[in-house]
């Protein structure tokens, strides 16, 4: 079993290195000429909206990226099984802490004997997520390069890149998307602000669908038995 884990771990590392190498090469090709972004613009041009609504464009592109990467992750992982493992691990840790507090040596021994199985299950669940990571990166990086092209090329002037933020203390005081907050461009912060909550919503929806499907399968088995 440990040999299989070692092989899968090495396989993941090699896949990750190959994908990261390809993505770094893609980023290098894009360069200052935005080669990759310009090519992808043939497919995403309709999302530009003539540069009139940059925030809406970022929201749409963030949605596309999250949906595609979620589909890939869903195909490679079992969300229901992962949730079961997480909840079981939480319950185990709670029982372990309680046994220590109560100094229940018999219970501590039983739980300690169970630990390797719990760790193996947790590692298996984490491994599924790690295995999907290189493939989601293949989606995320090209999309990111197109957004970079959109902000720097399509929105050619600072006037087009200027947006008003609802929480600004100064009325009509615009923020330029290419300005930096510390060392991070404003457009990346907004893109992340859109993508992160959206990814949580989509993941919860996917888990609901998977859980419902699992319940339907279980109900079907019960009907056949009865």
What does this molecule look like?
The strands form 2 sheets. Strands 1-2 form a two-stranded antiparallel sheet. The protein has a two-stranded antiparallel ribbon with strand order 3-4. α1 (2-30) packs parallel to α5 (105-154) and α3 (54-76) packs parallel to α7 (186-225). Mean pLDDT is 77; it is low at 1-5. It is built from 7 helices and 4 strands, in the order ααααααββββα. The protein is mainly alpha-helical and 226 residues long.
List the topology elements.
Layout: H1 2-30, H2 35-44, H3 54-76, H4 79-102, H5 105-154, H6 158-161, E1 162-163, E2 175-176, E3 180-181, E4 184-185, H7 186-225
Antiparallel strand pairs: 1-2, 3-4
Helix content: over 70%
Largest sheet data: 2 strands, antiparallel
Q: What gap, in angstroms, lies between the N and C termini?
A: 38 Å
Overall shape: elongated
Reading side by side through the largest sheet, how are the strands ordered? 1-2
Overall SS class: mainly alpha
Rounded average pLDDT: 77
% residues in beta strands: under 5%
Radius of gyration over C-alpha positions, nearest whole angstrom: 24 Å
Question: How many β strands by DSSP?
Answer: 4
Tally of DSSP helical segments:
7
List keywords for this structure.
two-stranded antiparallel ribbon; elongated; 226 residues; 4% strand; 7 helices; mainly alpha; two-stranded antiparallel sheet; disordered N terminus
Brief account:
This protein has helices spanning 2-30, 35-44, 54-76, 79-102, 105-154, 158-161, 186-225; strands spanning 162-163, 175-176, 180-181, 184-185. With 226 residues, it is mainly alpha-helical.
